[in-house]
Amino acid sequence: MENIRAFLSTAFVFLVFELCLVCCDITDGNAEHLKREHSLMKPYQGVGSSPTSQWDFSGSTLVTSSYVRLTPDERSKQGSIWNTVPCYLKDWEMHVQFKVHGSGKKNLHGDGIAIWYTKDRLHPGPVFSNNAVFHGLAVFIDTYSNDDATDRSFPYISAMVNNGSVSYDHGKDGRSSELGGCSAEIRNREHDTYLAIRYSKGRLTVMVDVEDKNEWKECIDIGGVRLPTGYFFGASAATGDLSDNHDIISMKLYQLMVEHTLEEENLDWTKIEPSVSLLKSPKDNIDDPTGNFRGTPLTGWKVFLLLLCALLGIVVCAVVGAVVFQKRQERNKRFY
Ligand SMILES: *[C@@H]1O[C@H](CO)[C@@H](O)[C@H](O)[C@H]1NC(C)=O
Ligand SMILES: [Ca+2]
């Protein structure tokens, strides 16, 4: 009996440990770290109308009890929604649940949604209804290809960091200034579509969940990104000659629990200039058909290490399996 108990408790500890590993690795979506003051959730109580509301909206934005419609499926609409509370978190993850849908056939719809973390809020302009020369981070969910010469499949998701010196080039879908991106079939889906933006320790990661499998797929992952604290989260959308309903269902901001060195802690994070230290200039994207910086081929060393890890994993599994099997044998012997 003692043996069984010991075995069960070991198994339990092992299971908890595994679960922990899995949880820590995946998105830190714990409710306790959800920051309500930076989140927009159903039924959007007081949004826009109440003076205590933490979200402002402008333009064509319509707030209902089950979605926030930035633009309806009509031509030449511009709408946005902005958090009124500046964000002072150093490490965060924003989850956006959204829906882009409309009556337009393939390639006859536009223009898309942009998610912002910027110095200025409610600053209208030509980029998905926002200012083209912004300070901070933008993630574009671009549903219409403005560039006839492009070889990309749209909708296309891309990210840009700007210190106010570069203008997003709408005619080229921002290709010359983008940090990375991916294609994603987000339009007219039956199920909900999600985007996650994580910024932690200088690393920017964008993930999408659009296949209704409840799992994140990596879209952008780059290091060397510097963003200050004290900026505002927002979302905006625009339609032109072509249109779509651009709906935000929720924006949930999670604080990530990350240790920083004392030196980092003592910095004034509000004074950081948005920047990216890239190995090559974003302009090189033009020659790179995928516009992707991550695509380094597996070198011999990496393959060797991967194989070694796999081998070690198999050995560990075999040993654990053998021990468990033996324990069971002993137990069986005792019972008979
Ligand atoms: C802004 O970025 C550009 C390059 O993108 C750089 O040349 C310039 O020095 C930066 N300005 C500031 C104030 O950091
Ligand atoms: Ca576009």
TrEMBL record:
Cross-referenced SUPFAM superfamilies: Concanavalin A-like lectins/glucanases
Coiled-coil regions listed: none
Membrane topology: Single-pass type I membrane protein; Single-pass membrane protein
GO biological process, one term: endoplasmic reticulum to Golgi vesicle-mediated transport
Single Gene Ontology MF annotation: D-mannose binding
Annotated signal sequence range: 1-31
Keywords noted in UniProt: Disulfide bond, Glycoprotein, Golgi apparatus, Lectin, Membrane, Metal-binding, Signal, Transmembrane, Transmembrane helix
InterPro entries cross-referenced by the UniProt entry: ConA-like_dom_sf (IPR013320), Intracellular_Lectin-GPT (IPR051136), Lectin_leg (IPR005052), VIP36_lectin (IPR035664)
Protein name: L-type lectin-like domain-containing protein
Top-level taxonomy: Eukaryota, Metazoa, Chordata, Craniata, Vertebrata
Gene encoding the protein: LMAN2
